Amino acid sequence: MGNAGLISLSVETNKLGIETPGLLSYHWNRIKGSVTIHISTIKIPTILRNTLQYIERRLHMHRQQTKPITIGTKVIGGGHPILIQSMTNTQTEDVAATVAQIKRLAAAGCDIIRCTVPTPEAAAAVKAIKQQIAIPLVADIHFDYRLAIAAMEMGADKIRINPGNIGGKEQLAAVVAVARERGIPIRVGVNSGSLESGLLAKYGGVTAEGLVESALDKVHAIEDAGYDQMVISIKSSDVLMCTAAYERLAAATSYPLHVGITEAGTIISGNIKSAIGLGLILNQGIGDTIRVSLTGDPVEEIKSAKIILRTLGLRRGGIEVVSCPTCGRTKIDLIGLANQVEDMVADIPLDLKVAVMGCVVNGPGEAKEADIGIAGGCGEGLLIKKGVIVRKLPEGELLAALRDELLNWKE
Ligand code: SF4
Question: Kindly report the CA angle at 34 between 61 and 302, in degrees rounded to 5?
Answer without folding.
Answer: 75
